[in-house]
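PT: before anyone asks, these are the final sequences, not the draft ones from last week. 226 residues across everything. Please model them as a single complex and drop the result in this thread when it's through.
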Amino acid sequence: SYELTQPPSVSVSPGQTARITCSGDALPKQYAYWYQQKPAQAPVLVIYKDTERPSGIPDRFSGSTSGTAVTLIITGVQAEDEADYFCQSADTSGTYRRLFGGGTKLTVL
Amino acid sequence: QVQLQQWGAGLVKPSETLSLTCAVYGGSLSNYYWSWIRRPPGKGLEWLGDINYTGATNDNPSLKSRVTISLDTSKNQFSLRLSSVTAADTAVYYCARGRGDTGMDVWGPGTTVTVSS
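LR: through. Structure below.
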């Protein structure tokens, strides 16, 4: 069945740029969303419609898309950005369902 | 500022039904969809299903029809029932609000549910 694939982990030093990819065959046809989740907290939407940033989200968070992959980009990473990040999209090939990628643990060294 | 408050039993016995409710404060149920998502220990997020303001539902086929989501417009609440639970259903359960193409922008704080005898 259709899946969204993310790397399990990404590590960067403070001030560097982190890129987290999410791959899925239907991503050219369905929008992707990105959520940040810190320990013992609820997820927070950081990117919607592939590249849009909700109000209140720092502008160091951005999104890009290319073919069957979308990428969350965090420019000038800060210690507080250490978290799990999940992409999310939709599968309309059969019964409609939303789905999440497996998640990526971002470690700030 | 819309807020979601959720509650339900934190301990459920195997084979029984898990029940959770999410109340919407500071906003209306109209023009949104209302989702349930969970995160088992050591694993990622899993979408369980959602309901829109007309009462139309979608649910995750992998849960084999164990999910029921309902809406109570008089109380501005929506609920989740998950039947025939096993230890694999142990997780933190979240309710969330979504709209069209703008994603799930408001989340409840989460409820920890443990399935154990």
